[in-house]
């Protein structure tokens, strides 16, 4: 799911992007750091449901992996600043809900949404790009944004209990280097992409560097489950 609007950071190498297999789901339309003042509490996202399917299950929640298309407009003049259908050959975008991979207003707007549902949402500046705006997308300062969203899929996110248990072969509620190494090999075989022989070891080392906070050689359930939407 490439082709997303980039973060404001240097591009990552292919090996670094390999971390998405386990720990870093795909990002899109990410807002700059917030903190423009205390107006957020007084402003809310306005949600209009345009279509609700007869079967509405499962409903999205924090930590779920969503697949959606959406268009973004400036409320001031209706001009379109973003269209997911023109990115990545028109494929819908994948992202994890509620963890800051999209602007805060979208994280809120897409909660409790079901596959097949369509929404029109209005997001105030404090929950979008605030006083800074976003020049790359031609979003001016203090802009109210409107998104039309169509949600296709709601899946368990990469930090779900199910994913942890899948990797934790011996069920000791911690992930060893051997367990994660085996998981990486399985994922590499599944996606079929050619990688340099050193990619596996470099990705494995990077995973532990970023997630083994106490340095004990294992990634505990607490260290793994940063989204905290499930209990292990």
UniProtKB/TrEMBL annotation:
Record protein name field: peptidylprolyl isomerase
Gene3D superfamilies in UniProt: 3.10.50.40, EF-hand
GO function terms (MF aspect): calcium ion binding; peptidyl-prolyl cis-trans isomerase activity
Domain EF-hand residue range list: 155-190, 199-232
Location of the PPIase FKBP-type domain: 63-155
Signal peptide: 1-35
Gene field: Fkbp7
Keyword tags: Calcium, Endoplasmic reticulum, Glycoprotein, Isomerase, Metal-binding, Repeat, Rotamase, Signal
Origin organism lineage: Eukaryota, Metazoa, Chordata, Craniata, Vertebrata
EC number: 5.2.1.8
């Amino acid at each position: 799911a490439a082709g997303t609007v980039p973060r404001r950071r240097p591009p990552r190498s292919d090996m670094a992007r390999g971390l998405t297999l386990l720990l870093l789901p795909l990002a899109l339309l990410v807002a700059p750091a917030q903190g423009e003042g205390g107006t957020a509490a007084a402003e809310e996202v306005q949600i209009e449901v345009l279509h609700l399917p007869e079967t509405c299950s499962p409903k999205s929640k924090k930590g779920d992996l969503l697949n959606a298309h959406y268009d973004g407009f400036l409320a001031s003049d209706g001009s379109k600043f973003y269209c997911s259908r023109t990115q990545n050959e028109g494929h819908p975008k994948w992202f994890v809900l509620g963890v800051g991979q999209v602007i805060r207003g979208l994280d809120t707007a897409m909660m409790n949404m079901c596959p097949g549902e369509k929404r029109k949402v209005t997001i105030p500046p404090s929950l979008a790009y605030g006083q800074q705006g976003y020049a790359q997308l031609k979003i001016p300062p203090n802009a109210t944004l409107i998104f039309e969203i169509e949600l296709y899929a709601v899946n368990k996110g990469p930090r779900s209990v199910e994913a942890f248990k899948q990797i934790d072969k011996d069920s000791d509620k911690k992930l060893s280097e051997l367990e994660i190494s085996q998981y990486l090999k399985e994922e590499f075989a599944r996606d079929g992409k050619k990688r340099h022989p050193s990619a596996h070891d470099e990705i494995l080392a990077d995973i532990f560097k970023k997630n083994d906070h106490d340095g004990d050689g294992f990634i505990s359930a607490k260290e793994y489950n940063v989204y905290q939407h499930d209990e292990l």
